[in-house]
């Protein structure tokens, strides 16, 4: 099994592609963590400049801030980039209640705080350093971050941090946003639009223009489940459980879609005239 896994990793590394294994229920995550960290130590070396392997961290678990802090310390000690895919979590109905935060508001707070600490490369109120570790960017390892979320507020907060970092010419971690295909498309489309606008502005001003460091150009991806219905069923059921609050976002999505339709009609009318 190990040779097969490393064969997949070697193929991904040859094409500079990232691998993002998903987390499972907490009772099985210790084994997944051991496996992914060992692969990160090998494939995410600073010398290569690539981040091939990521691990998934579920913000609704009370253990996640401490686990992430220890993994950051391991990356700092062994000199590799820690690949972090940050999610809220998909097993709320089956996890012991004592292991998860009691409210969605608390999970949101933890998610946003962890994201901010990783983006700024410094510890905070939620992500505390392990004993003996420093508390500044020099003691914080290299990080590559994927914010896997349908939450517009989390995305907005992250982009505000990124734009401030760009304006101040501060170093930034590698960042991407990820969502499920067909869900919260208004969030993903807004990121794509912002990226196109930012890229166009920077191209027009030129790399050496006085205002070229004004906005971050976000990268947004959609996760597509590929296979037969039987092969994909368990994945889809977990995603449905994870996104039970999707109905609450329907009104926001509907307003966003209506606004986009109006925008396209206005553009079409201007072209026709």
UniProtKB/TrEMBL annotation:
Keywords, comma-separated and alphabetical: FAD, Flavoprotein, Oxidoreductase, Proline metabolism
Enzyme class: oxidoreductase
Cofactor annotation: FAD
Pfam families (alphabetical): Pro_dh
Transmembrane segments: none
Annotated ranges, domain Proline dehydrogenase: 5-250
Catalyzed chemical reaction(s): L-proline + a quinone = (S)-1-pyrroline-5-carboxylate + a quinol + H(+)
GO BP field: L-proline catabolic process to L-glutamate
Cited InterPro entries: FAD-linked_oxidoreductase-like (IPR029041), Proline_DH_dom (IPR002872), Proline_oxidase (IPR015659)
GO molecular function annotations of the record: FAD binding; proline dehydrogenase activity
Gene Ontology cellular-component annotations: mitochondrion
This protein's record includes keyword Oxidoreductase: yes
EC numbers: 1.5.5.2
Family: Belongs to the proline oxidase family.
Record function comment: Converts proline to delta-1-pyrroline-5-carboxylate.
Protein name stated in the entry: Proline dehydrogenase
Origin species: Diplodia seriata
């Amino acid at each position: 099994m190990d040779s097969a896994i490393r064969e997949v990793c070697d193929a991904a590394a040859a094409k500079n592609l990232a691998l993002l294994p998903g987390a499972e229920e907490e009772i099985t995550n210790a084994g997944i963590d051991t496996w992914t960290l060992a692969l990160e130590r090998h494939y995410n070396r600073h010398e290569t400049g690539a981040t091939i392997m990521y691990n998934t961290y579920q913000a609704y678990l009370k253990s996640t801030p401490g686990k992430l802090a220890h993994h950051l310390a391991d990356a700092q000690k062994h000199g590799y980039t820690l690949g972090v895919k940050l999610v809220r979590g998909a097993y709320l109905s089956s996890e012991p209640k004592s292991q998860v935060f009691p409210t969605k508001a608390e999970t949101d707070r933890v998610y946003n705080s962890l994201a901010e600490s990783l983006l700024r490369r410094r510890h905070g109120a939620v992500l505390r350093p392990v004993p003996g570790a420093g508390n500044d960017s020099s003691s914080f390892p290299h990080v590559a971050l994927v914010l896997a979320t349908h939450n517009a507020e989390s995305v907005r907060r992250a982009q505000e941090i990124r734009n401030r970092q760009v304006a101040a010419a501060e170093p930034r971690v590698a960042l991407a946003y990820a969502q499920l295909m067909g869900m919260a498309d208004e969030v993903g489309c807004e990121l794509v639009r912002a990226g196109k606008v930012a890229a166009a502005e920077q191209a027009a001003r030129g790399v050496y223009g006085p205002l070229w460091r004004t906005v971050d150009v976000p990268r947004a991806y959609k996760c597509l489940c590929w296979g037969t219905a039987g092969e994909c069923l368990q994945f889809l059921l977990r995603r449905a459980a994870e996104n039970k609050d999707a109905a609450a976002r329907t009104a926001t999505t509907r307003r966003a879609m209506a606004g986009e339709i109006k925008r396209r009609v206005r553009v079409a009318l201007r072209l026709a005239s």
